[in-house]
Amino acid sequence: TGRIELRQVTKVYRRGTDQEVRALDAVDVKIDPGSSVAVTGPSGAGKSTMLHLIGAMDRPDSGEVEVDGERLELMRDRQLDDYRRRIGFVFQRFHLLPALTALDNVLAPVITDRRRAKAARARATDLLRLVGLRDRAASLPSQLSGGQMQRVAIARALIGAPRLLLADEPTGNLDSDTGKEILELLLSLCESENMTLVMVTHNDEVAAACQRTIVLRDGRITSDTRGSGG
Ligand code: ADP
Ligand code: ADP
């Protein structure tokens, strides 16, 4: 699953009393479940805002954000918490906790009682294996390369069995070979775990590997193309 629909979504940020920015301006978009979508466009175009609205990290000023038939803007805080648990986020700068091992970073989003702790550790170990880090469970982030840190972050994003993976410049801090590996990993996970991938990127090669590329400019979609990727 992971069907996303934005209908006439507008997000306005106010700066001081008289200045306002239309980060998104009446955006309409439908994203098929299980598909991979790149969102590109110049800095300030509204890309992160779109991700944040889909991930319920922020609310629209007007319009509807619907995921798998549920309207996010109508949800109460507790429903939003449940919803966010089924979303995986991956960031440019990994955002790992430096004092925790790779395994504990993967476990960080999970709050469990003692009864379920063992099962959670087993799942985290499986996820580290899935991202190719079977032997690095006990490593600290400082002992890992950038690509390995992003793999840990991806395993962490998967711990809640998300239906959506939202990635903000996931390759932006990696050299191009490592970036390609991470991209391949994200695309193959999206397929094997049946997740929708929405990825902000400035990299045309990365975008071309996705099934679809949406270009934003000044809060509007200026181009929407289905490529050969995926
Ligand atoms: P992109 O990700 O494409 O660079 P963003 O979605 O981050 O664009 O930002 C879109 C516009 O909204 C920009 O003009 C940005 O400065 C503005 N903006 C984003 N977040 C905030 C905020 N929290 N407060 C004020 N303005 C913001
Ligand atoms: P940058 O490297 O430019 O800081 P990131 O991709 O790391 O960009 O982060 C993208 C956005 O997500 C930022 O606005 C940041 O504040 C927010 N963010 C980063 N980490 C988290 C997190 N763990 N939970 C929620 N929001 C986050």
TrEMBL record:
| Gene Ontology CC entries for this record | membrane protein complex; plasma membrane
Annotated GO MF terms: ATP binding; ATP hydrolysis activity; transmembrane transporter activity
Keyword annotations for this protein? ATP-binding, Nucleotide-binding, Transport
Fetch the CDD domains from UniProt: ABC_MJ0796_LolCDE_FtsE
Segments forming domain ABC transporter? 4-229
One Pfam family named in its UniProt record:
ABC_tran
**UniProt-recorded name of the protein:** ABC transporter ATP-binding protein
